Every structure is written in C-alpha cells, then in structure tokens.
C-alpha cells in the first residue's frame, strides 16, 4: 500500500555496470558425464539407501565372523538349537532375542550354557554359531554373485563388442550361435551343469556364467552397432585412429553406462539363482553354506526354530532389494533417454 | 511373416535337438549304469536287463534310438518305480502344476494391471509410490522366501489357511499367491511405464479434445494400447513361473512336475531329470515362439527386428 504511494524519483536508480564479457562467462563449473550422472544418483534417495545397505552388508560380512570366537563349522551338540540372545537387547522382550524359545523356555538355562556364551543369531541343530554362518554365507553368496557378474561382463563385452565392431560375416556367425543359446532355458543349462560338475562355488559360478553373458553381449552389441555409425567415430577414423583407439577411446566409454546398469542387475540375479540351486539341493554343500543353503535348512525347522530361517532370509531380501534399487537409480542416472 | 515363422520353427527344432543331444551325452558321461550297484544280480540277469533297455548297443546306436523315441514323444523309464514311464510321471504332475501356474498367471496379471494403471493415472502420488515400492519388493524378494514366510505366518501362526498339500480349493490360495508375486510386480511396473508413455502422446490429447470422456479415453485408448507390449514379457514371465514352481511345489508339497523334478534330482533319477528338463525346455521354447509370433501379428512395426532380449 505504502509502496504505491511512494514517489519514485530518478535519483533512486543507478545505471547498471555494463560488461560485455559477463555474458560469455560460465558461472557453473561444467560437469563431465560421470559427475552429472553421480549428481543425479545422489539425488535419488532410494538408490543411495540401496548403495548404503550394500556397502554395509559387504563390510559387515567381512568383519562380523571375527566377532564370534567360534568358526563356521565348530560343532557342539550340547548347545544345539539355541534361540538368539543379544547382550543389551535381551531385556526388551518383544525383539525375541532374549534366549527364550517359542515355548517360553529359556534354552540357555536349560542347556547350562556358560553365561559368557551368547549367540546373537542363535545356533543351528549341530550347535554351530548361526551368526558366523549367516555372515560367512553372505560372503559366499556375494562372492559367487560378483564373480559371475565379472565373468559375464568380460565375456559379454568381448563377444558383443567383436560381433558389432567387425560386423558382416563375423557378426552373422556369432549371432547365429547366440540365437541358439538364447533358446535354451538357462534354468535347464544350470541344472544340467551342476549335475555333471559337482556342486561347489566354482561350478555354480560357471553354470551361472554359461548362459548369463548372453544378455550382456546383446546389450553391448546393440550399443556399439548404433555408436559405430555416428559422426564422431567417423571423424576419429578419418583422423587416422586405429581400431584399438576407436574401441578404447570412443566405443567402450560410451557403452559403459549400459554395461554398469546391466551388471548391477546381474548380481541380484546370480544371488537368486544360487539360492534357488541351494534350495533344490544342488547348491553349496555342507559344511560351507551360502545364504540360500541357510534359508533352505532353516525352512525345514521353521515351526520350532524360526530364527534359523528369518535372519538369512532378511539379509537376502535386503541385499536383493538394495541391488534392484541401486540398479534402477543407476539406469535413471546413466540413461540419457530417461533424463527429465 | 510366413518366412519368419518357418525360420523360427526351424530354429526351435534345432535348439531342441541340441538340448536333447546334450542331455543324452551327459547321461552317458555320468559314471555307472542303473544296474551296476545291485549286487544281487547275476551276470546274465544284468546282461538281460541291459539288453531290455538297449544299454548293450554302442553309444551312437543308442543315440539314434533315443532320438527316434524322442521324436515319438517317448522319454523312457524312471528308476524310482518299476516299469513306470517318465511320460506318465509328467502327465500325473501336469494337472496340479498347470493349475497353480495358471491361477498365479491370471491373478498376478489382473492385480498387476490394476496396480500399474492406478499408479500411472495418479502419477507421483501416494498410490504411485506405494505401488512401485510393492513392485520393487515383489521383483527382489525370491518367491521361496515369500512362500516360506507366508506359510509360517498365515498357515502356522494364524492358522487361516492349510499349511501344505493339495486337497481342495483352499489349498490353492497360498501357493498361487506366492507364485504370482513376481508376476504382479513385473506387470505393474511395465504397465505403469507404458501407460505414462501413452498418456503423453498426441492421439490421447486429440481424443480428449474431440470431447470423448476421460474414462472412455483411458479404457479404450490408453489401456488397450498399453496392453500390447505386455505380450513381450509373457515369455520371461512364463520362465519365472516355471522356475518358481520348482520350489513352491516343494514348499507346499504339491504333487506337481516341479516337486517330482526336485525329488528326482536328490535321488539321481537321471531319466526323469533329463525327461523333465527336455519337457521344460520344450515348454519354454514353444511359449517364446508363440509370444514372438503373436507380437508380430498384433504389432507389425516390431516384426522380425530381432525382438528384445
């Protein structure tokens, strides 16, 4: 009100400092593609939560087993099937970590377990410390998943890259092979391979890789096929770049986004298949255990000792969800088509 | 189109032949024969048994015979029961397996469609976020973990539904539901993306500006067009259902093919393993072929372009 009544006199104004150079000045530091992608990823809360959970579980699976004085296969039948007991939290009844089983009997008292022995995740039917087994199992599951993803990546990128880059007859021949392989259901191949190779970490990884690389190779091939004919590649070729330089400087860096996203989804897939194999009895053999094997064992006595299945199942669910969230976030961050 | 179908059918038989060859030679690679460890047999009895099952012939002859039988759909005999064929075992297990799979597929697709459509229509709202959180959980959590938890809480703790076995309609609910979780999640996510894309197209704007009511546009234009690409995910979904059924049938003790398959893996019943493997491969390959052909017929734009991975 008072604003409109006030008289605006010319002496209130001053000419602006005119500087022609200002228009050309870049105020924001220019971001590279990766900085930009990382900035977008950081904005995605779900993806960051997933990333944090993955890092947390990896770090924990490495240090947690050493927090217990028992090893993965230290059996002691006197302390079999103990429910979980966590010092500090045992007073809070509803958490169910007070050493009392579902019938309301304090198993620690009944079995005369020494007072300093507290099994955070309880013990299994052979009296092995479930805490150690769960985290070691997480390690093994993650190890298989990362190994499978790495081999998938190497084979897939090489196959897809060569097929697309050389094109013509090479591409034709290589794609015929892929067409037949794609038709074979991977479940079938994996089961057949495990039956001939004895179940173990390496054979499970191999079985996962045998069909796993095809998805990666197709994505890399499609990307490189479309990149190959772009002007910047032509320009680089005209300037005399060798094939090696073209691949390492132009084609691969531009495919990297798709490769990373695909790998992020390969890992939960591998974790799932490994758990699935363990579940139908073709997985890791005792005394070693993966998350899947622990869940399968736990389900057998779910009614009486729910703690045996609940902990590995929760960790597995958190891992799977986290990898999926991170993968979704990475896809949104790296795929320019999804950019808003 | 006809050329495309012929090419695909030919490729299908080639793939099946390769799978059959691999399974046959794997069976030969495995040490021992079904009659070696039974010490009660005399030499002549063992010879007679080998003769009966054609195991005395040289391997190439056995391979030809095997392929010949396979071409007639004969998968051989199981080791578990005397004189029973793998075919009859698959036929017995087919009923429950197909029922659970079908129920899961129908239920999952319906719920997934509704969730996906609701999420797209209420984009960036509470419903959208809720549906997508559910979808991520559904895709990420393995069906057997979900089934186990469901069995424990709904079956054992609450006692609402029978924990296991296959005796009536109420026994179908938990297995079909656990199997459908993945389907719900996949369909919901896919439908949401498709709907959002189509809601932004010009022809929807055009339809609206012509004065067609919002409901009519959504049902007749949006939903219909979004549903076409759903056909492409039917193939991967069918594979997921088969994979899931192996463990779900085991958890809920359903007398289906998956349960028998897992049992025969644990008993080293090779003819059943190989037969079921072939059966599953055949099923999956045929489903993918039918889906691809259907898609080519419904949407000619994508024809023969190699399809998505």
From TrEMBL, chain B:
Looking at the record, the residues that make up the ABC transmembrane type-1 domain are 94-295
Q: Which GO terms describe its biological process?
A: transmembrane transport
Q: What's a Pfam family this protein contains?
A: BPD_transp_1_N
Q: A single GO CC term, please?
A: plasma membrane
Q: What is the protein name given in its UniProt record?
A: Peptide ABC transporter permease
The places in or outside the cell where this protein is found are: Cell membrane
The record's family statement is:
Belongs to the binding-protein-dependent transport system permease family.
Q: Which InterPro entries match?
A: BPD_transp_1_N, MetI-like, MetI-like_sf
Q: Which UniProt keywords apply?
A: Cell membrane, Membrane, Transmembrane, Transmembrane helix, Transport
Q: Which CDD domains match?
A: TM_PBP2 (cd06261)
Which PANTHER family has this protein been placed in? INNER MEMBRANE ABC TRANSPORTER, OLIGOPEPTIDE TRANSPORT SYSTEM PERMEASE PROTEIN OPPB
Q: Which domain of life is it from?
A: Bacteria
- List the membrane topology term(s): Multi-pass membrane protein
- Name the SUPFAM superfamilies on file: MetI-like (SSF161098)
Show the stretches that span the lipid bilayer. Answer: 9-27, 104-121, 133-153, 173-191, 230-258, 278-298
């Amino acid at each position: 009100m008072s604003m409109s009544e006030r008289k605006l006199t010319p002496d209130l104004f001053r000419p602006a400092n005119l500087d022609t150079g200002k228009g050309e000045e870049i105020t924001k530091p220019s971001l590279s593609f990766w900085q930009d992608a990382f900035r977008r990823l950081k904005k995605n809360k779900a993806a960051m939560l997933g990333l944090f959970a993955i890092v947390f579980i990896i770090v924990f699976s490495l240090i947690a087993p050493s927090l217990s004085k028992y090893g993965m296969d230290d059996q002691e039948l006197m302390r079999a099937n103990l429910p979980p007991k966590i010092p500090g939290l045992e007073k809070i009844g509803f958490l169910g970590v007070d050493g009392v089983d579902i019938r309301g009997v304090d198993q620690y008292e009944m079995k005369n377990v020494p007072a300093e022995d507290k099994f955070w995740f309880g013990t299994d039917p052979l009296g092995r410390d479930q805490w150690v087994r769960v985290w070691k199992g997480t390690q093994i599951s993650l190890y298989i998943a990362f190994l499978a993803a790495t081999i998938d990546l190497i084979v897939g990128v090489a196959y897809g890259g060569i097929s697309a880059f050389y094109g013509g007859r090479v591409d034709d021949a290589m794609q015929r092979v892929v067409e037949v392989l794609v038709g074979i259901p991977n479940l079938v191949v994996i089961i057949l391979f495990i039956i001939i190779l004895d179940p173990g970490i390496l054979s499970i990884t191999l079985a996962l890789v045998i069909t796993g690389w095809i998805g990666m190779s197709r994505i890399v091939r499609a990307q490189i096929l479309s990149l190959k004919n772009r002007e910047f590649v032509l320009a680089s070729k005209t300037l005399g770049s060798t094939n090696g330089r073209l691949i390492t400087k132009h084609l691969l860096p531009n495919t990297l986004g798709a490769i990373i996203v695909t790998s992020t989804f390969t890992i939960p897939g591998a974790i799932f298949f490994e758990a699935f194999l363990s579940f139908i009895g073709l997985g890791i053999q005792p005394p070693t255990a993966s998350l899947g094997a622990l869940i399968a064992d736990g389900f057998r006595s779910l009614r009486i000792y729910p703690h045996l299945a609940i902990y590995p199942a929760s960790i597995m669910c958190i891992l799977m969800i986290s990898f999926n969230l991170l993968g979704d976030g990475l896809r949104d961050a790296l795929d320019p088509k999804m950019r808003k | 189109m006809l050329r495309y179908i012929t090419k695909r059918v030919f490729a299908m038989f080639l793939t099946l032949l390769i799978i059959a060859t691999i399974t046959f030679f794997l069976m030969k690679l495995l040490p021992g024969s079904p009659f070696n460890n039974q010490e009660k047999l005399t030499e002549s009895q063992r010879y007679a048994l080998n003769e009966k099952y054609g195991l005395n012939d040289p391997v190439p002859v056995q391979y030809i015979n095997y392929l010949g039988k396979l071409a007639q759909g004969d998968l051989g005999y199981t080791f578990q029961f005397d004189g029973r064929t793998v075919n009859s075992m698959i036929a017995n297990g087919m009923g429950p397996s197909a029922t659970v799979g079908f129920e899961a597929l129908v239920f999952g697709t319906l719920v997934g469609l509704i969730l996906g459509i609701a999420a797209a229509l209420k984009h960036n709202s509470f419903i959208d976020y809720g549906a997508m959180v559910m979808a991520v959980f559904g895709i990420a959590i393995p069906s057997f973990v979900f089934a186990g938890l469901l069995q424990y809480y709904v079956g054992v703790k609450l006692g609402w539904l029978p924990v296991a076995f296959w005796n009536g309609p109420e026994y179908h609910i938990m297995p079909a539901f656990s199997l459908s979780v993945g389907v719900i999640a996949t369909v919901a996510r896919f439908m949401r993306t498709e709907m959002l894309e189509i809601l932004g197209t010009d022809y929807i704007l055009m339809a609206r500006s012509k004065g067609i009511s919002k409901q009519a546009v959504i049902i007749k234009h949006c939903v219909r067009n979004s549903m076409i690409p759903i056909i492409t995910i039917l193939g991967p979904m069918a594979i997921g259902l088969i994979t899931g059924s192996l463990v779900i049938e085991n958890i809920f003790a359903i007398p289906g093919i998956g349960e028998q398959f897992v049992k025969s893996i644990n008993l080293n019943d090779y003819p059943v393993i190989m037969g079921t493997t072939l059966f599953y491969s055949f099923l999956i390959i045929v489903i993918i072929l039918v889906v691809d052909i259907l898609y080519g017929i419904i949407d000619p734009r994508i024809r023969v372009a190699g399809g998505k991975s």
